Amino acid sequence: METKKQPLIIAFSTQKGGVGKSTFTTLIASILHYRMGYNVAVFDCDFPQYSLVQMRERDLKTVMQNEALKKMAHRQFTSLNKKAYPIFQSKADMVLEEMQDYTNNSETAPDIIFLDLPGTVNTAGILRTLASVHYIFSPITADRVVLESTLSFTDVLTNVLMKEKQTAIKSIQLFWNQVDGREKTLLYENYSKVIKDLGLQLMETSISDSKRFRKEGETVAKTVFRSSLLPADPKLMTFCRLDSFMEEFLRIVNL
Fold first, then answer.
1. Fewer CB atoms < 10 Å away: N or C end of the chain?
2. Distance of alpha carbon 57 from alpha carbon 165, whole angstroms
3. Contact by Cβ (8 Å): 22, 46
């Protein structure tokens, strides 16, 4: 029996909530699926809130209530001739088997699967699942609690599991998110030095703080930023440096 090509598995993962995991999963998945032509699937394992599953429901309502977005979505799906990427509800200790079932049984095998994972190492199955991810991207902010939590966990993955070749992980990349231009550059330089001294990888691109990252589609808007049905508007991407982040992201994962 012919074996289907296995998808690339990517996770935006960190041990703290509220730093952008679900937002970046949605942003990057939408760009890849709707603008770049890849077949994407998302597994939302962030029990019990399942924020991406809920976001898809809100996105559907918003598009149906907004004539400009409805026309945009119609043009998009007509020209692409494919559906919106699926978002499946799962759990960290079950998702590997569910991903494999989906890949084996899907008419169109996914090129890329994104995992939205819980923000605690104590979640059942989380380490086993992370060990099967190919690329992990961890958003960090200039906050001591966020940094200490993320760095200690990333250090274990990088310098223990990866070095002992116990994972499928090819790369773990930290990146600055919610960067406030009013904060001192020296602060980020010092934190970046700590990251380098730990032997961890830090992306060159930092993401500027923007209300857009906390804002979904609106019934009166003519453009979108964070949406699971439409890709982010290019002008809005440039404003917060998401365009530069996307270029670096593509180089890292070899797309």
1. N
2. 40
3. yes
Q: What is the pLDDT of residue 1?
A: 40
User: For the chain, how are helix, strand and coil distributed in percent, rounded to 5?
Assistant: 45, 15, 40
Q: How many other CB atoms are there within 10 angstroms of residue 194's CB atom?
A: 11
Q: How far apart are CA 121 and CA 97, in angstroms?
A: 20
Count CA atoms closer than 13 A to 6's CA, side-chain side.
Answer: 9
Q: What angle do CA 63, 231, 88 make, to 5 degrees?
A: 75
Helix 21-30 with 242-252: angle, nearest 10 deg? 80
Find, among 100, 110, 123, the residue nearest to 49 by Cα: 123
Decide: helix, strand or coil at residue 67: helix
What per-residue confidence (pLDDT) applies to 217?
52
Number of Cβ within 10 Å of residue 227's Cβ equals 25
Give the mean pLDDT per block of 10 residues along the chain (255 residues). 78 78 94 97 92 94 91 92 95 94 92 90 78 93 82 80 80 89 76 88 88 54 87 90 96 96
Q: Give backbone dihedrals phi and psi of 203, rounded to 5 degrees, phi first.
A: -65, 150
Tokens found for residue 201: 């990888």
pLDDT number for residue 13: 85
Omega within 30 of 0 (cis) for the link into 231: no
Q: For strands 87-89 and 201-202, give the pairing.
A: unpaired
Q: Which residue has the tokens 């809100």?
A: 58
Residue type (1 letter), 43:
F
The C-alpha atoms of residue 203 and residue 172 are separated, in whole angstroms, by 10
Counting every residue written for the chain, the total comes to 255
- DSSP conformational letter for 132: T
